[in-house]
Write a structure and sequence with these properties.
The chain has twelve helices and three strands. Strands 1-2-3 form a three-stranded antiparallel sheet, covered by helices on one side. Helix 3 packs antiparallel against helix 6, helix 8 packs across helix 10 and helix 9 runs antiparallel to helix 10.
Length: about 300
């Protein structure tokens, strides 16, 4: 009798579509992370890992209120979309815009399979987060902001970064002056700040993170406006600090340490510092649960 009950329970688990969806979602997530890792883009991998983890947590938190009612047309469309996506991936030799859009395609397909066309509204926050992740290029957001800043001030991010790094070095007693906007003159060397060191990458990273923060959490009205601004300022300041450190190491002829912090694993630490600072500064903007409206009562799951 006991064995019969165990077999029945196992059969119920096997027939429960939610477990198949969970397995499919986990597989697609791991596939995309592995694909991103293969490109060697550490920033892309980091932001993808953060977004996937956050979105998975969002879905898990509201699993009791989700309606799982699929349809044949939605499942066929989603399956076709997944097949075409994998076919396209096989033709790609490196990372690019399409690889960034893959999570959005995966998320949309999963939502269709789980809840059909009528149930897509349940996943609007998750799909919006995937859309933020899918924005093309590493510098899509920061590039537009840089164009705006340059049209107003006449200075690019590269020039502003060089100026901030020069100011910081002088502030700690290391005599430095700026020439032609991007050349930092130190006591024993001249350092040119290239466009790749403008900070656009880390600003773009933190901006996407700020949008994810606003999607996940219910924040104060002030927080909604300040979170993106804080992301931009933090990205700029952290990168300016990084450039100042790089310039000091070059002036000190410490090439081994310079390579570690510039292109080695140490270069990722500055991004981590930016993420931690952003979290600490923006945490007070999150509204407490007592001030949020009560959650909707759970509904029965369709089978």
């Amino acid at each position: 009798m006991l064995d019969s009950f165990k077999r029945n329970d196992t059969l119920k688990l096997a027939l429960d579509s939610r477990y198949w969806l969970l397995a499919l979602a986990a597989g697609l997530m791991l596939f995309h992370l592995a694909l991103t890792d293969q490109t060697g883009d550490m920033k892309g991998f980091s932001i993808s890992l953060i977004f996937w983890g956050a979105i998975a947590s969002m879905v898990w938190d509201k699993q009791e209120t989700l309606r799982f009612r699929t349809s044949l047309s939605a499942s066929l469309f989603a399956t076709t979309l997944l097949i075409l996506t994998f076919w396209k991936i096989l033709q790609i030799s490196s990372g690019g815009i399409f690889v960034q859009a893959v999570p959005l395609i995966f998320g949309f397909s999963l939502a269709l399979i789980a809840s059909s066309w009528r149930g897509l509204g349940q996943y609007r926050k998750e799909l919006l987060a995937f859309a933020v992740l899918a924005l093309p290029g590493e510098r899509f957001l920061a590039g537009n902001i840089e164009s705006l800043v340059q049209s107003i001030t006449g200075y690019s991010f590269t020039m502003l970064t060089a100026a901030a790094a020069t100011f910081g070095l002088n502030l700690v007693g290391i005599r430095t002056f700026l020439d032609n906007g991007v050349y930092m003159h130190l006591s024993r060397s001249i350092v040119r700040v290239h466009e790749g060191c403008s900070g656009a990458g880390i600003i773009d990273f933190l901006l996407r993170l700020s949008f994810l923060f606003l999607i996940i959490f219910t924040t104060t009205r002030l927080g909604k406006y300040l979170a993106p601004v804080i992301a931009i300022l933090l990205g700029f300041l952290v990168n300016s600090f990084r450039v100042a450190v790089m310039a000091y190491l070059i002036n000190d002829f410490n090439t081994e340490t310079f390579d570690y912090w510039h292109v080695g694993s140490g270069s990722q630490i500055f991004g981590a510092i930016g993420v931690i600072l952003f979290g600490l500064i923006c945490f007070p903007f999150i509204k407490s649960e007592s001030s949020q409206p009560a959650a909707e009562p759970p509904v029965d799951h369709g089978t």
